[in-house]
Design goal:
Elements (H helix, E strand, L loop, with lengths): L1 H9 L2 H19 L5 H19 L8 H6 L4 H21 L11 H22 L6 H10 L14 H6 L9 H21 L4
Helix pairs in contact: 2-3, 2-5, 3-5, 3-6, 5-6, 5-9, 6-9
């Protein structure tokens, strides 16, 4: 178990958990001051982005060359890292449901973190861990002005539902499929190639 503690410390896991907890608590508190559905939805979206961004620094160790050359099987460990980090973020965000007024429901949280986690992992493999937060932030900022108000029924062609997957309501199949594809593609790419130098 000592190796696990050392691994988590080397990947800044305690700092990431503290960041997600603090951000979630702050956004949840701010949510109680707002009655309009649109701003409340944006607060949930900010919580998703903060959770995804917190995963990014841990996708690179202190020595990237050592990660690439160590005599252990890194691909399964990298994939497990992304999956466990995403599950931890989902758990923290979903825990707001215990208050009776969650930031978002469990389905949209799981979908958002799955897709954004995949984008972060893809960003780490292509841009490096320090810039891995850029793909989910860019995607969200580009599609946010094009989307209907939060909580409205999904309308429009399938490609629009796929492009705006991150803010679609629960049960929107094209949005869920897009998030799963992004999550799987990002995790697989990061698992195989690791973090870019």
């Amino acid at each position: 178990m000592r190796w696990l503690a050392l691994y988590l410390r080397s990947r800044s896991a305690p700092a990431a958990v503290a960041a997600v907890l603090g951000t979630t608590a702050a956004l949840w508190s701010l949510r109680h001051a707002i009655d309009e559905p649109q701003p409340r939805g944006i607060l949930a979206l900010l919580a998703f982005l903060a959770g995804a961004a917190a995963i990014a620094p841990g996708l690179a160790g202190a020595d990237i060359d050592l990660d690439r050359t160590a005599a252990i099987a890194w691909p399964p460990r990298r994939a497990a890292h992304v999956i466990v980090a995403g599950a931890a973020v989902i758990g923290i965000l979903a825990a707001t449901a215990l208050t009776g007024d969650p930031l978002a429901h469990a389905g949209p949280i799981a979908r958002a973190i799955t897709g954004m986690g995949g984008l972060v992992a893809l960003g780490a493999a292509t841009l490096g861990a320090s810039h891995a937060w850029l793909p989910p932030a860019t995607w969200t900022l580009l599609v946010l002005p094009l989307t209907p108000p939060f909580g409205t029924a999904p309308t429009g062609p399938t490609y629009e539902l796929m492009l705006t997957w991150v803010i679609q309501p629960a049960g929107t199949t094209p949005a869920t499929v897009t998030a799963v594809i992004l999550g799987a593609a990002g995790t697989l790419t990061y698992a195989v190639f690791g973090t870019r130098r």
